[in-house]
Amino acid sequence: MTHAARPALKIDVLVASDRWTSAGKLKSAVRRAIAQAGMALSTTGSELAIVLADDSTLRALNRDWRGIDAPTNVLAFPAKSAASGYLGDVILAHETIAREARAEGKPLAHHVAHLAVHGFLHLLGYDHERQKDALEMERTERQILRRLAIPDPYRLKADPKKRHPAKRPRRHRAPAGRSR
Predict the structure, then answer these.
(1) Cα separation values, 108 from 17, 20, 40, 54, Å
(2) What domains are there in the chain, each with its CATH number?
């Protein structure tokens, strides 16, 4: 008996902002990350959209849908019904993601891939409101990213400034009987 192959996960990556100047490379990173997540979580035969947007777009969406008037790095909008196979949309904000990647010393492509996977997991019902759920979501993200050879995004990097604290200058004491 042979089994028919299940259709692959369909990933639409849309560029909605000119800020994504290296969109080709980043689109590939997103597709690869989501495809790996789809295989890991057996979501073949489904479809989703990843939108590469900017901070102003995410700020408006965050304000309108979550009541938070500030940009954020990623938002996920699950489909009302996954029965059609459409999972929903994941929207990424370029400026916030680029700023975070620089601050954390990460390649932009790694951070974009991580946040795409994070948003994808939200489409599948993962959440991080409760500690237990957050740990499960992070564990799943780590497993997927490890398969992509992307370092653990939750591992704290040692701050070189803290690793080798500057030595305090020694106070020289005046020889006994002499004042400074």
Answers:
(1) 16, 11, 23, 15
(2) 10-163 (3.40.390.30)
